[in-house]
Amino acid sequence: MAQGRHWSTEPTRTPGLTLSLLGPVEAHRDGRPLHLGGAKPRTVLTALLLARGRVVPDSELTALLWGDAPPATSPAQIHTYASRVRQLIGPAAEVERRRPGYLIRLPHRGVRVDLAEFQDHARRGAAALAAGDPASAARLLRGALAVWRGVALGGVCEPLVRLERDRLEEERLVALEQRIDADLELGRHTALIPELTALIAANPLREGLRATLMTALYRAGRQADALAAYRAARATLDEELGIEPCAELRRLHQAVLTGHPSLLTTRTPHHRSLPGSP
């Protein structure tokens, strides 16, 4: 879905309206849950939030709610779902009919959207890491990841899940990789090894994670294990995709083989630019 204006990313300091997408889709006012109903009103709310102030046409909402088989009454049902969301989250946020569809208006203060908070912390964490401040980066990126409560977009209709969930999960994984990079620069290589091992088991094609594990193992004095990690990466890529490791992973392998001094510097190798899943 295309995105328009940005949400406010200033955290809400006082109780107010909270709209949550990074886990089950939920809404809370002053800490108390609002009853959104079933998957369809949750889908309407989610689609409007992801549009960030852009009008979401009725045709797009129809596809997100029913896929290729909408009922004849779909316009009336969309109106009902939008009205329900308007009643629940108003007056702090406004759901407005703007032909050919609907949009949501959020104030600059008083409404917290967890996705906006995550993206703001992740952006600032990435900037701190690039600027050579791994301590700030690790703190900000941990804060970003702590916003997640589970698998994003829980409880919405399947067409919206197929359209958006993988993109949001990729954002989470990138932030996680950057947080791990920050911890590596802070000398936490030994503590990172079990976490990286588990992440690679769940995401075996992310070469950036493979590179970080190799570096962490080498810095922990486990050169043989670092070389074994490369062999495992190469075997997996060949078996799953029929390709060799990328050039940067091959260069890292050569550096581990020769014991290159750069592997022990506080700045990590350039594997942050390694591709994730193809």
From TrEMBL:
Highest taxon of source: Bacteria
Sequence ranges assigned to domain OmpR/PhoB-type in this UniProt record: 9-115
DNA bind region: 9-115
GO BP term, pick one: phosphorelay signal transduction system
Transcription regulation in keyword set: yes
One Pfam entry name: BTAD
UniProt entry tagged with the keyword DNA-binding: yes
GO MF term set: DNA binding
Protein keywords: DNA-binding, Transcription, Transcription regulation, Two-component regulatory system
Similarity field: Belongs to the AfsR/DnrI/RedD regulatory family.
Official protein name in the record: AfsR/SARP family transcriptional regulator
Organism expressing this protein natively: Streptomyces jumonjinensis
